[in-house]
Amino acid sequence: MQGDVNHRLGFTTTKLETRLDLSYFIDKAWTTRVFSHPPSEYFRHPSVPNTLEGYLESDAPIVSIHVTELENCACIGIAFTHCVLDAFGMGQFIHALSDELHGRPWDIPPFSETSVLQGVLDDLDAASPRKELVDTTSQGLPGGVLAESLNKAHIEEQLAYENRYRNFETKLVYISAETLDKLVRITKEEVTRLTSGSSFVSTSDVISAWTLKATYSHETDNNDLHLNLIVSARKVLSDRYPALLDYPLNAIGPVPLPKVTKQALISKSLAEIALWHRQGLLPFLNDSSWIQDTDTYFKSNPDPISNGVRPREYGEEPLYFTNQIVAHHA
Fold first, then answer.
1. Alpha-carbon distance 159 to 147, whole Å?
2. Sign of torsion, CA 252 258 261 267?
3. Is the pTM of this model over 0.85?
4. Contact 213/227 with Cβ under 8 angstroms?
5. What are phi and psi for residue 134, nearest 5 degrees?
6. pLDDT tens-digit series, residues 208-232
7. Which of 87, 246, 250, 269 has an alpha carbon 20 to 30 Å from 232's alpha carbon atom?
């Protein structure tokens, strides 16, 4: 069954005679567990495009909701083109959908016929033009979002490499709320002890620290890690441009953390990694030059093509991830 509302919102449903293992949610004995990602077709109808070109050629809905009814549960997936929304915008959509389904009032985000973000970028460029990208990563300063970093970390090519040569798999990690709360509390207490109370780390810093340590702790090589956080530009610029706080479209960019070798990262405690993560992020929260750099790069490289993927054998490994979700591991 399929329908849509003016080609903006699509609905599809499927019914399958199969079951999902939900023990990691139901059995309270599980505190942590790694499990395989459920099949993508449970959450995404085959008619939904996988590329921007597919959206343009098929006139597909901007947002598609797919429900798969299984014997013991229902899977609900929401698909959209990243050219329209980022995770923040999708969060707004999900909250609005939940409020509508539960009969709660909800506010429509402010609408503008012009791009709010583009107006901000034009204003920033007028005040402080940036003609070229500047590499200041080694000094730990903003402005280190490089064409070289973005180009050679081409996600599709690295995923293809990992899948072919290292049996890449997509897995999910379940951590119970009690376990996560304890992890965050103990790590924050250790940071307070290490810095005599002079430094702070957020829950996101702790989750990122755990993710990085878990990702690399089983590996024995000492490759250089080029770690890049995917950060929202909204709060960085909201003091000067408050309209950005509710901006639902793409407003994200990568910021590089200080380069580190794999074994140096593994040898650190969770508290030390969380502190390193926070200290590496702080300069970018107080400087908008990385936002202009990202805009400059994509304006000059609308379809960036890697000219030299850096696999593990070359001794360098790029990683792009958000504060709470690993977006890419190669």
1. 20
2. negative
3. no
4. no
5. -120, 130
6. 999 899 888 988 889 888 787 888 8
7. 269
